[in-house]
Design the sequence.
């Protein structure tokens, strides 16, 4: 791994650590720079903006598998497992609804949306899924993962 790649990974790791402690609105580039022990100029050599960093951080934690190779039910299971494995990150990200929406929309376009579906079908399925995930993130003491998977599969099959 080159020095550039090591530094890049350090920045992403520092951001993940920050998200596990604070909400996105509470995290600054300065916080990440201090945690990663780098300079401002180094940060901006790697990322054009904080939003670019969040998008890449999300991509780096996403499942490596191409979900198109899986059945629909397995894709939903992988999605929910991914959210569960990064639960604190997503719960904190949810507090800034705009960023949460941008990241999940990207994930859906890459992995879930079907090219043969209409815009309306994809949009409504997306919004229903995000609503269910939000409900789970906000009420994890009363909603369990298996229920989320069950109802997401029902939503998307109908």
Sequence:
């Amino acid at each position: 791994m080159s020095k550039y790649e090591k530094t890049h990974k350090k920045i992403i790791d520092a951001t993940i650590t920050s998200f596990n402690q604070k909400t996105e609105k509470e995290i600054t580039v300065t916080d990440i720079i201090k945690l990663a022990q780098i300079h401002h100029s180094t940060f901006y050599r790697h990322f054009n903006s904080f939003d670019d960093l969040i998008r890449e951080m999300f991509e780096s934690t996403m499942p490596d598998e191409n979900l198109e190779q899986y059945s629909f039910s397995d894709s939903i299971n992988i999605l929910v497992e991914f959210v569960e494995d990064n639960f604190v990150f997503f719960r904190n990200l949810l507090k800034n609804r705009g960023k949460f929406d941008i990241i999940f929309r990207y994930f859906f376009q890459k992995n879930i949306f079907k090219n043969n579906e209409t815009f309306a079908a994809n949009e409504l399925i997306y919004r229903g899924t995000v609503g269910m995930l939000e409900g789970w993130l906000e009420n994890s003491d009363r909603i369990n993962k298996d229920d989320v998977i069950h109802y997401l599969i029902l939503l998307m099959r109908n």
About this structure: The radius of gyration is 17 Å.
